[in-house]
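Entry 12.
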Amino acid sequence: MSPEPAAAALPGEDLALVQCAGIGLVIIASAGAADSVSTKATEPQQVLESVPV
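Predicted 3D structure (tokens):
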């Protein structure tokens, strides 16, 4: 998904430097989010026993 903003902005638009920087930040954030996804399985949660009141 990260190259989509750049691909959408390419056809026929003159972009300001700030807009180009924004597109770059979106691409970097998307790549970082995709890279930080853990493939490690989560540990099962412990089942707590009910305490009589």
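Annotation: Helices lie at 4-9, 17-35. The chain has a mean pLDDT of 75.
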